[in-house]
Write a structure and sequence with these properties.
Number of helices: 10
Strand content: 25-35%
Number of domains: 1
CATH topology: Rossmann fold
Structural class: alpha/beta
Distance between the termini: 23 Å
Length: 256
């Protein structure tokens, strides 16, 4: 990313990640710019999901995972011993491939995080829940059924609810690991419109298999192949004039 240093929210330096003896990420160096959408592309098994989980230390939950190098968030290494991982995950939220609402009411799903943080005031909770649902473009569809079980929502609505749940924690960054791969085209279009709106307030990093989606929603693209970054840069430049033949072959559908 050819970004001004002051605009970078993450700086990744000489990152390597292993699962046991398997090398999943090799010598990763790049930065993520604030209030932009960065799309991670590449074929299955190339390291995209492993990388996105590095940014909020979700890989800590995987046995035999070892990481070297530095991941700087606001110039602080998130893998330093002093890092408060719970606080990091509050600031760097995550939305997964398959919608995963909790088996409770719509209201309680969104209020869950703030309640865990100690928010007890009912008016404050209502305000946070409403604002989060508005920001996730879901409020108008659910405002009259807040006590309904979240599992009754459609797949697309469930994914927007998961985004609202992440927003309720007031993060700075939202990580999205193929958030539309389980959704139909109409629900996908709604999520894409939402991402375009969300980047005004949040920094978004999204893993996608869909080249057309990356072209529609991202400001920057990072192309992963076999655990390495082959090329990264401005979306228009990458799509119109890739510098590496492997990037061109992937973008044009010759492999992947």
């Amino acid at each position: 990313m050819d970004a001004i240093k002051g605009n970078n929210i993450f700086e990744v330096k000489d990152l390597n990640l292993r699962y046991g003896s398997m090398e999943a990420l090799k010598n990763i160096n790049f930065s993520i710019e604030k209030n932009k959408v960065t799309a991670l592309i590449g074929p299955s098994g190339c390291g995209k999901s492993s990388f996105i989980r590095v940014l909020n230390r979700m890989n800590d939950l995987i046995q035999d995972c070892s990481i070297t190098g530095k991941v700087l968030y606001h110039e602080e290494d998130i893998y330093a011993q002093k890092t408060d991982v719970i606080d990091l995950r509050r600031k760097v939220g995550m939305v997964f491939q398959k919608p995963n609402p909790f088996p409770m009411s719509i209201f309680d799903n969104v209020a869950y995080g703030p309640r865990c943080q100690g928010m007890k005031d009912k008016k404050m909770l209502r305000d946070v829940v409403k604002k989060s649902l508005v920001d996730a473009a879901l409020w108008d569809e659910v405002k009259d059924r807040m006590k309904s079980n979240a599992l009754e929502l459609s797949g697309g609505q469930q994914q927007r609810l998961c985004i609202a749940r992440a927003i309720a924690m007031e993060p700075e960054v939202i990580l999205m690991d193929e958030p539309t791969s389980a959704l139909d085209p109409i629900a996908t279009a709604k999520i894409e419109e939402l991402i375009d709106e969300l980047k005004k307030k949040y920094t978004i990093v999204i893993v996608t298999h869909n080249m057309q989606q990356a072209a529609r929603i991202s400001d920057s693209i990072v192309f992963f192949l076999m655990g390495e970054i082959i090329e990264s840069g401005n979306t228009n430049d990458m799509l119109s004039n890739p510098k590496d033949k492997r990037t061109e072959n992937y973008i044009t559908g010759r492999f992947g």
